[in-house]
Structure formats: C-alpha cells, structure tokens
Specification:
The protein has about 325 residues and is an alpha+beta fold. The chain has 4 domains: about 60 residues, no CATH class; about 110 residues, Band 7 domain (Tetrahydropterin Synthase, Chain A, 2-Layer Sandwich); about 80 residues; about 45 residues, no CATH class. The chain is built from 8 helices and 8 strands. Strand 6 and strand 7 form a beta hairpin. It is rod-shaped, with a radius of gyration of 68 Å. The model has no long low-confidence stretch (mean pLDDT about 80).
Length: about 325
C-alpha cells in the first residue's frame, strides 16, 4: 500500500502583523526608556540639583535613588573634601622667578550647592578658585625677596590661606586647609644661594675657630693671671711675715732699749739720791778731812786765800748738785 505524504507550506507573517509587532516593540522600548528616565541616583557625598528644561528647581536631593519627571535632569554637586594642586610661576620682590607648588583642600556645604550651581556651575574650581589662588599666591610671594622665602615658607603659607578663606567665602566655598608643597628657584639663583651658604658655613667655621682660639688665649691669660696673683699673694704674705718679724724684733729691741733706759734711769736716780744724801751729809770739817786724807804731803804750788777757797768749794758743791739732778 503506497502512502503519499503531502506538506502544506507555512504561511508567513503578513505585513500587518509585522507592523503591529514593531509598534509593540518600540512602545515597549519607549516605556522602558521612559521608566528609566524617571529615576536618578545621587552618590554618597553629593547633593542632587534638579533642573527642568534648564531651570533650577528649589528642591535638592540627598544621596540615594529618587523619582523625577522624564524631562528633568539631576546634576550631582560634590560636597566632599576635595584636593587640588597648582604649579604657579611667581616673582619675588627682588624679581627672582619662583615656581610654587600650592595645594588646597576645599569643600562646599549642602545648603550652598544649589546656589553655587546657579551662580557658578559645576566647574567652580576652575571658574572661581583657580584665579583667586593664582592672585593670592603671586601677591603674597611678591612681598618677600627670594632668600627670605626659604625661611618664611610657613608664614607665607598662612598668609595665603587667610586671603583665600576670606575671598572664597563670598562664593560659598570653604577652604579646609592649604599648604606650599614646594618652592623652586632658577638654577642660577640656586647656585648663588648654595655658594652663599658655603661662604656662610666657611665664615661660621672661621668664627668658631677664632672663638675657640680666643677662649684658649683667655684661659691661658687667666691661668697666667692666677699664677701671677698667686705669686704676688705669696710674696705679699712673705713680705708681711718678714715685716711682722722685723716689727716684732723692733718692738723687742725697743722694749729692751726701754728696759735698759729705765734701768739706767733707775741707776742714775739711785746714784743721784745717794749723791744727794752724801752732799747733804758733807760739812766743811768732813771735806777738810777728805782733803787731808788725799794730800800727798807736798805743798801746793798755787796758793789761794781762804775766801777764794770757799768760793771754789761752793762751785764744786753746785756742780755736784747739778750732776745729781
């Protein structure tokens, strides 16, 4: 038995069906796109600014996912602490070229994000901050000569920071901190500074050596002075000792002389007293007796009268009395 199979041809999609499917697909895609455009995500640390056809709405969005109208846009303003570094070419007060690497940390507050976007935009760093940083750094650097910039780096950084805080506050930008990362000079100036430093070090070394020599000389002079003073004190002590010995000897000699004089005076006093007693005890008869006892038996060759003899005797008595006194 022969069996014959017949395959009926498949019927294709007609044009109407394809059009319908296409419309459905486009509608689905449009619905998906429309649904996606109704949601916006604000990252952490940002504030969402809503605009409707370019107009800034009064409403702001916190971090997270939010519903919005499809024709609205959400611009995210960064509220975090941000850091930017600029390399600036400046000139010191003595017209030396100085390259300054300046770093600033800044941020905006949530409450000011909408106003900043309205008045400045999202690129507020380049629009507002960069010109003010340029002006502040160059202005402050121009107050110092090139050499003083090296020693006054911290002071200069503080002065620039104070200027920026005041200027940028009017734009609702808060300067958290700022610092000078590096100060670089031309090769010619750097070589001159190095040469000056070498000269200063050599001068300091020479002054130190001179001070050391002066100290040693002063110490030697002090030692010599001390030795001389010691010798002078020793000589003075010896002289005082000799003087004391001489004084003692002189006092002793004077005392001996006084004692001898007192003894002699005492002897003379006693002798005078004895002579006085003797003179008082003498009479003419006793004198004649002594005269006779002392006569050698020879007659005198000179004769005097009795009156003259008595005169001579009186003179002898007077002289004896004077010698007794």
């Amino acid at each position: 038995m022969n069996t014959t199979y017949r395959y009926a041809p498949k019927k294709g999609l007609n044009g109407k069906t394809i059009l319908t499917l296409s419309i459905v697909a486009v509608a689905a895609i449009l619905l998906i796109v429309l649904a996606c455009s109704c949601f916006a995500t604000v990252p952490t640390g940002h504030t969402g600014i809503i605009t409707t056809f370019g107009k800034v709405e009064n409403q702001t969005l916190e971090a997270g996912m939010h519903f919005k109208l499809p024709w609205q846009k959400v611009i995210n303003m960064d509220n975090r602490n941000q850091k930017s570094t600029l390399t600036l070419v400046c000139f010191s007060s003595d017209i030396q070229e100085v390259d300054v690497v300046y770093t600033v940390n800044y941020q905006i507050e949530k409450k000011n994000a909408q106003n900043i976007y309205k008045t400045i935009g999202t690129d507020y760093f380049n629009t507002v901050m960069t010109p003010h940083i340029n002006e502040a750094v160059k202005k402050m650097v121009a107050h110092y000569d090139a050499e003083s910039l090296i020693d006054s780096r911290e002071k200069l950084s503080t002065e620039i920071y104070d200027v920026l805080v005041k200027d940028l506050a009017s734009y609702n930008v808060q300067v958290v901190s700022a610092s000078i990362e590096n100060i670089d000079f031309t090769e010619a100036f750097t070589a001159a500074v190095e040469a000056k430093q070498v000269a200063a070090q050599n001068k300091l070394k020479a002054e130190t050596e001179q001070e050391q020599a002066n100290m040693e000389a002063e110490k030697a002079a002090e030692r010599a002075k001390i030795n001389a003073q010691a010798a002078a004190d020793a000589a003075k002590i010896a002289a005082e000792a000799d003087a004391e010995v001489a004084k003692t000897k002189a006092n002793a000699a004077a005392e001996v002389t006084k004692i001898e004089a007192d003894a002699e005076a005492y002897r003379k006093e006693k002798e005078a007293a004895a002579n006085k007693l003797l003179a008082e005890s003498m009479s003419e008869e006793l004198l004649q007796y002594f005269y006779i006892q002392g006569w050698d038996g020879k007659l005198p060759e000179t004769w005097v009268s009795q009156e003259d003899f008595m005169t001579i005797l009186d003179i002898a008595k007077q002289q004896q009395a004077k010698s007794g006194e």
